[in-house]
Amino acid sequence: MAELQLSGKVAVVTGGASGIGLASAIMLHENGAHVIVVDLDRQQGQRAAEELGGTFIRADVSASGDWHAISAAARDAGGADIVHLNAGVTTDVADITAITDAGYRRIMGANVDGVVFGVRAMAPSMAARGGGSIVVTASLAGLIAFSPDPVYTLTKHAVVGLVRSLVPQLETMHITINAICPGLVDTPLLGAQARELVVSAGFPLIPPEDIAQAVLGCVTSGRSGDLLVCQAGADPVPYRYAGVPGPRDDRAKGKVPPPGLAAFDQASKDS
Predict the structure, then answer these.
(1) What's the whole-model pTM score?
(2) Catalytic position from the list 104, 152, 239, 241
(3) Three-class SS string for the chain?
(4) Is 152 a catalytic residue?
């Protein structure tokens, strides 16, 4: 029997008890990885970890201190090779004047802080292990304007920008980082009422297993900086930004940015 492509690898999946996280945990396990399921839901998280023969850590990704326990669990398992930063929430509030302080802090904590803290905590140990792969769950709302939930859209634009900006730094650690940007996925995050509305309108929902396949693709491709657009019935496609206009000042002709900004200059050319 051929060795599975992720045999001997350790994968950390946040929000791994349900939805995209659970589907990804299953996919990574089926390809040979030992999976550490991270979630706030102890009952569902423990059940998922037990079924996968993995490890469960109850943690709040928005709390920087909780990442110590996640990192320790990865070290105990041999060290993290794969980190899927997937945990996230929505506000379901379209009216910016109706956003409460608590609601704003909750979504920023889960969707933005959870990614920043996750990369900060896991990258050093991944580098010490020889590198690895980080995959962030973003959204189409990270690439387009999504007026039904503008603050959710803010958070996903933030993580897309973070992923793109971290590519050169993580490359020196032999770590790839990519983002998946799905449309509407059939998960509990969508909510029963919204799901019924979408289905009754005949709009296709993406099975979470399809997103898990995209996550696996990011882990195994060796590419970095991809923003994979995932839509129902279509293969994932890397998103490409239009280039931004450069300076038109005569003093800029024939010049390039200083060395410290070279990566920014190249990113502008590649976008």
Answers:
(1) 0.89
(2) 152
(3) CCCCCCCCCEEEEECCCCHHHHHHHHHHHHCCCEEEEEECCHHHHHHHHHHHCCEEEECCCCCCCHHHHHHHHHHHCCCCCEEEECCCCCCCCCCHHHCCHHHHHHHHHHHHHHHHHHHHHHHHHHHHCCCEEEEEECCHHHCCCCCCCHHHHHHHHHHHHHHHHHHHHHHCCCEEEEEEEECCECCHHHCHHHHHHHHHCCCCCECHHHHHHHHHHHHHHCCCCCEEEECCCCCCEECCCCCCCCCCCHHHCCCCCCHHHHHHHHHHHHC
(4) yes
